[in-house]
Structure formats: C-alpha cells, structure tokens
Specification:
Blueprint: E1 2-3, E2 8-14, H1 19-30, E3 33-39, H2 45-56, E4 60-63, E5 67-73, E6 85-86, H3 91-102, E7 108-111, H4 122-130, E8 134-137, E9 146-149, E10 157-159, H5 165-175, E11 182-185, H6 193-200, E12 205-208, E13 211-214, E14 224-226, H7 231-243, E15 246-255, H8 262-269, E16 273-282, E17 285-293, E18 301-302, H9 314-323, E19 326-330, H10 343-353, E20 357-361, E21 364-369, E22 378-380, H11 385-397, E23 402-405, H12 417-422
The structure holds shikimate-3-phosphate.
C-alpha cells in the first residue's frame, strides 16, 4: 500500500470501540443469564474471533452493525464445541477463554494463527494447573493448541511474575468456577476492565492495590454495555496530530481508564499539547474527548509503572520519539517481545528503514530524534496491526513517498483505520 504524506490535518474523529472491553462484553455476556446488549462494539477481527468461539459453544449472538445482542446461558450453560476453538490472532481471546474452559464439564481445544502459535501460554498454564485445571499444551511447547478436560478447580492466591491483564483475567474467570476465593497479585497493576465489568455483571470481585480477588459465583446477570472508544486506536491520531506540522484534531469518546492512559502521560511528558474535554463516565469507564494540537516534541523516559498502561502504544511512541528533539529511553518493556510480533525488533527495523537513530535493548529501545535525517521508506508491518498503524502515521510526517507491506492487517483492531486517517488530511 502507498502511504500518504500530509502537511495539514484538521477534523473530528470517533475511533472504534475499545478492543479489551469489547472482548470482555461478549465473554461475560455469554456466561451470564439473560440478554447482554453491547453498543459501539469493535467489529475488528480479534473481537469477531471471540464471538465465533462462543457461538461454537452454543451461545446465540446477534451481531448487528450498531449493536450486538448476546443470549447468555449462565455460568454453566456453555456446550461442548464440535471443533477446535479458533482464537485467530487474538491473545486476549485465547487467554481469557482459557480461564472459562478450565471450569467446564466438557473437553475443548483452543488454537490460533501462526503468530498466536508462537505466543507464550506458560504464564496461564502455571496458575491454571495450580488451581487444579486439566490443561496442557498439545505440542508440549507451552503454546497453543491448548487442550482442556473437566476438573475440579480450587481457589489460589497467585503472585504473577508479569503485569498482564490477560493472565489476571484468565485466573479470575477460572476463579468463578473454583471452590474458594481466588486472588492475583501483579508486580504492577495492569488494565482493570475485567474487575470493573465482571463486578457490574454481579460477580463478587474486589481490588486492593495490585491484588484482585474473586469469590466463587453461582450466577451472573446480563446487562447493557456501551463500549468507549479505544485509547489504543486514538493513540495513532494523537501522534498524527502532534507530528504533522499544522494539525488540530478532536478525537471523540475516548476511554481514559487510568490503567490505560499512559499514552497521554508520555505524550504530555514529550511536550504534546492534548486537552481533555467533556469528561464523563460510560458503563463504569472514564471517557472524554481529546483535542490534539501540533507542536515540537522532546525526548523522555518511559519505564516502570507506566509500561502496562501504554504497552500497546510503545510502537507509536517510538515513532514520536524519532521526530522529537533529544533522546527517549524505553525500558522495563520486555513484554514487547511476546506481542503480535517481537515489537522490539519490528519497531527497530521500521525505524531504521526511515533513517531513525534507534538502539534496541533487552527490555526496550533508545531513540535519538533526528527529524532532518529521516526519509521515505518501504515499511513492513510483519502482519502486526499496531506496527502498520504506527508507521502509516510516521509516513504522514515524512516528506517523501512511503509504502507498507501487508497493510491490511489493521483489520485486527481497526478496520477503517486508513480511511479515517485520510479523512483528516487537508494537503
Ligand atoms: C489486553 C491486555 C494486554 C494488551 C492486549 C489486550 C487485554 O496484554 O497488550 O492488547 O485485553 O487484557 P497483556 O495483559 O498480556 O500485557
């Protein structure tokens, strides 16, 4: 795909629904009693994988353009899937459903695409096994396919070595089916959408600092969920608005949960002009509109507790760093290596293609901004949606033609990304 350059961006945009929240609405609706109606659901390939997994387990899900209706069958209403559950490219689908499958009275197998088959599952196999789950990696490599057999689950207290909402949520969902309290302590608090939404569905779940606990549950009740816009998708427009020389963009209806808003903190630390307008609460999640105005950026350090709150935004922050004045250090982010691609490698490779000064490290990267040395490039998404979107934004701010290999992978989280971006280009 040929990518556009731009001198001026203007306009208003509403990014699609939050991916994490869309997944959870389907899952929790399926195991609740009665109807769950979801509006602003993200129609991305990852969330469609979650829908198809639950349809295979006998849940009727009516996916309309404006809303999704899930006819929940309760915690014990799922039925044995007749074939392998296909999570596609989605780690969230794989890891969260695994918590639910562990507690079912039937056999099941979950697998995914080529990238998914390389992603680490030991992080959930260890705690699920400690709870008594009968789960194993079919190839013995701690990756999918994972095979589940019926087993009695026990509550545990788990000290997670990684700050991962996928791991935390997997354990909490298994905990609904366990015979005692289940709790998870994380090294740093990860996104808390599971805790907020499960509680709204009627689960007895508590959070205290870095620990979340859930009681065994006999019933959850369906509800209406309005999904806020995805801050991870908004991040590309925040960066575009800051990097293109003459830009002013209003991004409407963006979820700003404090466990997700690291992009705002980091972009402001780089000097970015971002205003929060019209703050409100939508389905228990904080939401606002963001007004972004271009201006010079400078380097910063991104590390520690901030990392889980912006883990998916590091590729676009790295692009911003390449255009900023001075050096940006990203560390404590070894998790980047086990995302849809090894994002330390794929970000470094694409930054180097455009002439940026970047040094990869074991747990991040060091980028020294040198806008005058940057030039057009043939980028490679490596089939990773966030790499494709990050470097499409880089192309906007570069002065020369650029192309993207496998650009269409953005359908994973943002099917209309390129047309939305184009709608803002004035010159
Ligand atoms: C997600 C959690 C994050 C994030 C992913 C979505 C979720 O993964 O990278 O895109 O919905 O729980 P980890 O929690 O494993 O870091």
């Amino acid at each position: 795909m040929e990518l556009k350059n731009a001198k001026q961006l203007r306009g208003t945009i509403a990014v699609p629904g939050d991916k994490s929240i869309s997944h959870r609405a389907i899952m929790f609706g399926a195991i609740s009693e009665g109807i769950t109606e979801v509006s602003n659901f993200l129609q991305g390939a990852d969330c469609l994988s979650t829908i198809s997994c639950f349809q295979k387990m006998g849940i009727s899900i009516d996916n309309q353009p404006d809303y999704v209706v899930i006819h929940g069958k309760g915690l014990h209403g799922l039925s044995k899937p007749q074939s392998v559950l296909d999570a596609g490219n989605s780690g969230t689908t794989t890891r969260l459903i695994s918590g639910i499958l562990s507690g079912q009275p039937f056999d099941s197998v979950i697998s995914g695409d080529a990238s998914m088959q390389k992603r680490p599952m030991k992080r959930i196999l260890t705690p699920l096994s400690a709870m008594g789950a009968d789960v194993r990696s079919e190839k013995g490599n701690d990756c999918v396919p994972l095979a589940f057999h019926p087993a009695k689950l026990h509550g545990i207290h788990y000290n997670s070595p990684v700050a991962s909402a996928q791991v935390k949520s997997c354990i909490l969902l298994a905990g609904l089916y366990a015979d005692g309290v289940t709790s998870v302590t994380e090294p740093v608090l990860s996104r808390n959408h599971t805790e907020l939404m499960l509680s709204a569905f009627g689960a007895r779940i508590t959070s205290l600092g870095r620990t979340a606990s859930v009681q065994p549950q006999s019933r959850l009740k369906g509800l209406k969920v309005e999904v806020p816009g995805d801050i991870s998708s908004a991040a590309y427009f925040i960066a575009a608005g800051l990097l293109v020389k003459d830009a002013e963009i209003l991004i409407q209806n963006v979820g700003i949960n404090p466990t997700r808003d690291g992009i705002l903190k980091a972009a402001r630390a780089m000097g970015g002009n971002i205003q929060k307008l019209n703050k409100r609460t939508v389905s228990g999640e904080p939401v606002c509109d963001l007004l972004v105005t271009s201006g010079p950026l400078h380097g910063t350090t991104i590390d520690g507790e901030l990392i889980p709150a912006l883990i998916d935004e590091i590729p676009i922050l790295a692009v911003m760093a390449a255009f900023a004045e001075g050096t940006t250090v990203i560390r404590d982010a070894a998790e980047l290596k086990v995302k849809e691609s090894n994002r330390i490698n794929t970000v470094t490779d694409n930054l180097q293609r455009m002439g940026a000064d970047v040094t990869p490290t074991e747990d991040g990267m060091i980028i020294t901004g040198n806008p005058d040395a940057l030039h057009g490039a043939d980028f490679n998404s490596c089939m990773d949606h966030r790499i494709a979107m990050s470097f499409a934004v880089a192309a906007l701010a570069l002065k020369h033609p650029c192309t993207m290999k496998d650009a269409e992978c953005v359908t994973i989280s943002y099917p209309s990304f390129y047309s939305d971006l184009e709608s803002l280009i004035c010159l």
